[in-house]
Amino acid sequence: MTSPTPAVRKIIHIDMDAFYASVEQRDDPRLRGLPVAVGGAAARGVVAAASYEARRFGVHSAMPSVTARRKCPALIFIRPRFEVYRAISGQIRAILLDYTDLVEPLSLDEAYLDVTADKRGIGSATRIAGEIRARIKAETGLTASAGVSYNKFLAKLASDHRKPDGLFVITPDQGAGFVETLDIAKFHGIGPATARRMHQFGIRSGLDLRGAELGFLQRHFGKAGSHYHNIARGIDERRVTADRPRKSISAENTFADDLHALPAAAAELAPLADKVWAYCGKTGTRGRTVTLKVKFSDFRQQTRSRTQALPIAGRDELLVQGTRLLEPLFPVRRGIRLLGLGISSIAEAAGEDAAPQLGLSL
C-alpha cells in the first residue's frame, strides 16, 4: 500500500514596500517623489528605511547616515514614528487574519500566511494575495508586494521578485528551476559572510549549491548545511507558526562622541533600561537573561550575558545587572560608540511570575 501524497501547502509572503518611508510620504505629500530616509541625520545616525527614490542612489537600510548623505546629497532625513508604524501594522494584520489564523509576523512590515485552508473558502492563494494587496491599498494608502508558493522560502523569494507593488507566483513544478538561476546572495537566510564563504568553494548560484553534496555542506556550514541542501532543490518544510513568541527585548544607542569612562558609560545604560522595561511593563513580558552589547570605535563588537534563576523583577534590577556586565570591560583601550541592553530567556520565564508573551502585530 502506497502512502498518500502529502497535500501541497499554499503559502503567501506579504511585504510592505519601503514601509516606514512610504508612511512618511503618505502623511506628508511634499515628500512624495523625493529621496527620503527614515533614521538619524546625525554623524553617527543610521538609515532605518529608504524610499525607492533614495534607493536609486544606492541608499539602503542599516547604512550609516554619513554614507547615505554622500551617495544622495538631496536626501531628506525623517525621524522615525514607531507608534504610527505599529498602528498601521495592526491594521494590516487585521486584514490578514480575515483570511487565515495562520499568520506569522516577521516584523512590522512583513508576514507569512498559510492559506491552505482559508477562512473564506476562496481556494486560490493567488486570488487571496491579490485581495489582500487591494485591501491594504484601499485601507492604508500603502502598497504591498506578495509572493505565493508552496513553501516559505520560495514565497519570500517570490515577494522580492517584482517589488515594489508586485505579485509573483512560483508553482510546485517551477520551484527547483527558479532557485537554480538565482545568485546565492539573493537567497533569504544566506547573508554576505556566508555568501563569501560559499564563493570560496565555487558556489555562486542555486545550481552550484544543488551540486554540493549534503556531507560537504554539513561539514562547512554546520546545521545550516541541511537547510541549504534542501532549499537548493526548492524544498522547505518549515511551518507557518502563528504569533511566534519574541525571544528577546532590547534597546541600543549610538553616541555622537565615543565614551571612554565607566561613569559616563554606566549613565547611558539608564535610558536603555527605561525603554526595555517600558515594553516589559506594557506586555507583562519577563526574562531571566540580561545581555549587554558594546560596539567600540573600531567597530569591534562584544556581548556579555548573565542568566539567573528567577525573572528580572524590575527596571532597577535590569540596570544593576547591566552595569555589572559593563564594569569588567573598563578601562577600555578604544572608545565605545554604541551600547545595547536586552532581556531574553523569555519563554522559560513564563508562568505565575511572568505573564505570557504577547504576539507583535504585523
TrEMBL record:
* Residues under site feature: Substrate discrimination: 20
Q: Does the keyword Nucleotidyltransferase apply?
A: yes
Q: Which reaction does this chain catalyze?
A: DNA(n) + a 2'-deoxyribonucleoside 5'-triphosphate = DNA(n+1) + diphosphate
Among Pfam families, the record links this protein to: IMS (PF00817), IMS_C (PF11799), IMS_HHH_1 (PF21999)
Which residues are Mg(2+)-binding? 15, 109
**Domain (UmuC) ranges:** 11-191
Active-site residues are 110
Sorted alphabetically, which PROSITE patterns does this protein's record hold?
A: UMUC (PS50173)
Recorded superkingdom: Bacteria
**GO CC annotations?**
cytosol
Recall the GO molecular function terms of this protein's record: damaged DNA binding; DNA-directed DNA polymerase activity; magnesium ion binding
Q: Required cofactors, per record? A: Mg(2+)
The entry's function note states: Poorly processive, error-prone DNA polymerase involved in untargeted mutagenesis. Copies undamaged DNA at stalled replication forks, which arise in vivo from mismatched or misaligned primer ends. These misaligned primers can be extended by PolIV. Exhibits no 3'-5' exonuclease (proofreading) activity. May be involved in translesional synthesis, in conjunction with the beta clamp from PolIII.
PANTHER family per UniProt: DNA POLYMERASE KAPPA, DNA REPAIR POLYMERASE UMUC / TRANSFERASE FAMILY MEMBER
* Protein name (Swiss-Prot/TrEMBL): DNA polymerase IV
Lineage start? Bacteria, Pseudomonadati, Pseudomonadota, Alphaproteobacteria, Rhodospirillales
